[in-house]
Recover the amino acids of this structure.
């Protein structure tokens, strides 16, 4: 977040954009300090009133040594409120994850760094339904005698949520107007498991109902398990994909490998009136405080946020800021001199703050 804000301030100054930044502490460490809340009690109002919400990752290992994250008294992860709480309260129904491979990015495979997929052949967006599915907080545990014996997670799929997220996918496909790298066709792919799951049958039916309103866009479906191997083997086939909550959570982490790993992957949580942008990675606690991890996912989250706000406010200055950030990221990646360990290995690694500064300086040059 520190590097994301560094870049935001760097591009804003020459463009005359002023921000009132509200800092909202949250997450596992905050909960351990405070004892009963995972963010301050006025945080929801601050988020509701914000033009744009940027979220750093939450989650901290339980000091009791359970191997899991710090849990609150209600058994939810400390950090639930800013992440899932904001998604639910603000109805941020579309989790939009661009999967774009920039030139110069190497992939970490077998512990080494190689160019595997070609830049230009990976340029898709996967949209995940963000408010229900298996993550709807409707399940529970039965614990006769105090020991958990039965655990139930209920997968909730509603027509309303399907409609919202599927329409978002078709609209985005039309607005991007890029098509799939393989054949330039505008294509929306629904990732489902409709041969088994009732919820996926409903999702599929709504997909074709809404898709009928977009005759210029090809409608495609893929069974989620088969999709994972097509995603890796022929990513150039995909333009915009849309899926339910947990399938999307899993396939987008896999898809991050195509773009250089978790340090490069961004997620926008978008609703009708609000949006929250975040890297898709978690808090990577084993690296915390070492000035080591890749800040590009956070920096690109700022860029995505600016693009969303620019469209909402019809503000070309915000678009310029976003374009300068992306151009700066591309420049720093192509030069390959100032990058973190995940992209170039430990021997040649720069610090997180050095990468942030290199991108901030390049972004200001782009505006000059
Ligand atoms: N939205 C969120 O805030 C969010 C999302 C996922 C997980 N979490 C939480 O984060 C904590 C850690 O979860 P995890 O270890 O499963 O996932 P993680 O994403 O934090 O880390 C997994 C691995 O990904 C790599 N990685 C992550 N971010 C990176 C970056 N910026 N640069 C380079 N490499 C990076 C590291 O190798 C790291 O060990 C848990 O408490 C979890 O609940 C939070």
């Amino acid at each position: 977040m520190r590097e994301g804000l560094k870049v935001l301030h760097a591009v804003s100054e020459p463009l005359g954009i002023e921000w009132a930044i509200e800092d909202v502490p949250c997450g596992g460490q905050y909960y351990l300090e405070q004892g009963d809340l995972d963010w301050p009690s006025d945080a929801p109002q601050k988020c509701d009133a914000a033009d744009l919400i940027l979220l750093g990752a939450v989650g901290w290992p339980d000091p009791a040594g359970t191997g899991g994250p710090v849990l609150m008294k209600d058994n939810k992860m400390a950090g639930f409120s800013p992440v899932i709480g904001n998604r639910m309260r603000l109805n941020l129904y579309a989790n939009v994850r661009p999967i774009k491979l920039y030139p110069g990015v190497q992939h970490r495979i077998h512990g080494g760094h190689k160019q595997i997929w070609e830049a230009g052949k990976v340029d898709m967006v996967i949209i995940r339904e963000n408010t229900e599915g298996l993550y709807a907080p409707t399940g529970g545990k039965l614990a006769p005698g105090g020991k958990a014996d039965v655990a139930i997670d209920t997968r909730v799929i509603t027509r309303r949520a399907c409609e919202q997220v599927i329409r978002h996918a078709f609209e985005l496909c039309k607005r991007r107007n890029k098509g799939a790298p393989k054949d330039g066709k505008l294509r929306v792919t629904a990732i489902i498991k409709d041969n088994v799951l009732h919820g996926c049958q409903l999702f599929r039916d709504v997909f074709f109902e809404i898709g009928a309103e977009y005759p210029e866009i090809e409608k495609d479906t893929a069974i989620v398990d088969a999709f994972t191997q097509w995603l890796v083997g022929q990513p150039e086939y995909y333009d915009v994909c849309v899926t339910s909550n947990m399938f999307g959570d899993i396939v987008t982490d896999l898809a991050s490998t195509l773009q250089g790993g978790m340090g490069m992957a961004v997620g926008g949580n978008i609703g009708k009136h609000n949006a929250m942008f975040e890297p898709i990675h978690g808090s990577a606690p084993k690296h915390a405080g070492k000035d080591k991890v890749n800040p590009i996912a956070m920096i690109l989250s700022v860029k995505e946020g600016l693009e969303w706000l620019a469209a909402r406010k019809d503000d070309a200055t915000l678009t310029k800021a976003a374009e300068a950030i992306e151009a700066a990221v591309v420049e720093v990646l192509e030069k390959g001199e100032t990058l973190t360990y995940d992209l170039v290995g430990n021997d040649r690694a720069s610090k997180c703050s050095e990468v942030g500064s290199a991108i901030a300086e390049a972004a200001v040059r782009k505006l000059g």
Summary: The two ends are 25 Å apart (CA to CA).
